[in-house]
Write a structure and sequence with these properties.
Layout lengths: L1 E5 L5 E6 L5 E9 L2 E2 L7 E3 L3 E3 L4 E6 L1 H4 L9 E8 L7 E5 L6 E4 L18 E7 L5 E4 L11 E4 L4 E4 L5 H8 L1 H11 L3 H8 L3 H4 L8 H6 L21 H8 L10 H9 L18 E2 L32 E2 L2 E7 L8 E2 L14 E4 L16 E3 L11 E2 L3 E3 L4
Parallel strand pairs: 13-18, 15-16, 17-21
Antiparallel strand pairs: 1-2, 2-7, 3-4, 3-6, 3-8, 5-7, 9-10, 9-11, 11-14, 12-13, 14-22, 17-19, 19-20
Length: about 400
């Protein structure tokens, strides 16, 4: 049940009850019969988050702060929706600061400030739910230019994946200034170390957090300690970058996507080599060797700030180009057998496993390496540190 009241200064208070629960609750407002969820940015209380059941909940909205045309003659209504915890809304935000709040939104338009807001590239992870549960699809189709044999993959559940690669600012939110210092120290006098040391501009902070090795920085030393050799074990070392992200959000097992999750999210239902529908031209969705100079803020030898190219149909940016992205799997060399929720090769604890990066990067001039299906094996068993390699995070689509 829902009730709504407006006070003398225009603030709207909504009270609601849900039976059972808990649930995730979102809201959209109607102004003169039109839904204006993209305008609602000044809402406080029990909304856009998980709430418990069997009690009365309240939230308030000041429409004059976010929608300037509200007047005494405006007809206002509210739509309140409860989502099951195992079927959460399409968008989730995970705040890396303060109390590390987790919020949910029913659409891209409902995101406060819009998806391009710098907060989603600096202090908050913006996650998109990928509708994958129950889907059987052909992995490896890439306009004939990938290096993987087509085979059938079936997903049993949805998952969230980052709208953007993790940025340097987001990395520093969890690692602190010591994180920057550690990378600079480990890289010596390389150009990458100089970039971390010298570029504190807003553009630089929104570059992908590149130069982090799968083993030494992201998950743990899989060569020296089999406890962290995914998929035999799902844990990460607490001091590693992904361990620090996990510590912010109890119950949310953030990690790299599997190779299958990455490819499905990249394609967004498109069967061509690139997710813009082309087999030959990724220019509007990818930064690569042929178009780097089109970005007036680009620095030679460095990736671009995230989110400057067009998104794919799922609303994900930089899936092609900019930086190669680490995935969980070891390199197979060819297709796996058809399977459900694949986790990589059969010999999953083999010493010297070459972890995989996907998507190509800003220095790539060979188009086939930018395609949805191309797998690039890291020849250093996940220990490579290079300005070309970044990562994005993934998490099961179940609210905790």
């Amino acid at each position: 049940s829902v009730t709504m009241a407006q006070d003398a200064v225009g603030a709207i208070t909504v009270n609601y009850e849900i039976e059972g629960g808990p649930a995730i609750v979102t809201a959209a407002f109607e102004i003169d019969g039109a839904v204006v969820e993209d305008q609602v940015q000044h809402v406080v209380g029990d909304v856009n988050r998980k709430v418990e059941g069997d009690t009365t909940h309240t939230f308030t909205w000041r429409p004059e702060d976010s929608w300037k045309l509200v007047s005494d003659r405006t007809d206002l209504a509210v739509q309140v929706k409860a989502w099951a915890l195992d079927n959460p809304p399409p968008y989730m935000t995970m705040e890396l600061f303060g109390a590390h709040a987790i919020r949910f939104y029913p659409s891209r338009e409902a995101l406060p400030g819009g998806e391009a807001d710098p907060v989603y590239k600096t202090r908050t992870l913006l996650m998109r739910k990928i509708p994958a549960g129950g889907i059987a699809w052909t992995m490896g189709v890439s306009g004939g230019s990938g290096n993987e044999t087509p085979h059938t993959v079936t997903f049993t559940k949805d998952y969230y994946i980052g709208v953007y690669p993790v940025t340097l600012a987001q990395y520093l939110e969890v690692k602190g200034s010591a994180g920057r210092d550690a990378i600079i120290s480990s890289l010596g006098s390389t150009d990458l170390a100089k970039a971390y040391a010298n570029d504190a501009s807003s553009y630089g902070m929104m570059r992908p957090a590149a130069g982090l090795a799968y083993t030494w920085h992201l998950r743990g030393n899989q060569r020296g300690d089999s406890a962290y050799n995914w998929p035999s074990h799902k844990e990460v070392q607490a001091s590693m970058v992904i361990g620090l992200f996990r510590s912010r959000f109890t119950g949310y097992v953030l990690d790299l996507p599997t190779s299958a999750q990455w490819e499905y999210a990249c394609r967004a239902g498109v069967g061509t080599a690139f997710n813009n529908g082309s087999d030959t031209d990724p220019g509007d969705v990818a930064w690569y060797a042929a178009n780097n100079a089109d970005d007036p803020d680009w620095a030679e030898g460095m990736p671009h700030a995230v989110g400057l190219k067009k998104p794919n149909a799922f609303g994900l940016y930089d899936m092609h180009g900019n930086v190669d992205e680490w995935v969980l799997d070891c390199y197979t060399g060819n297709a796996l057998a058809d399977e459900s929720d694949p986790e990589g090769p059969i010999d999953r604890t083999a010493a010297g496993c070459n972890r995989v990066v996907r998507g190509g990067d800003f220095s790539t001039s060979i188009l086939s390496m930018l395609t949805s299906s191309y797998q690039r094996p890291d020849g250093n068993a996940g220990g490579a540190q290079t300005i070309n390699y970044g990562f994005r995070l993934c998490v099961p689509a179940v609210a905790q």
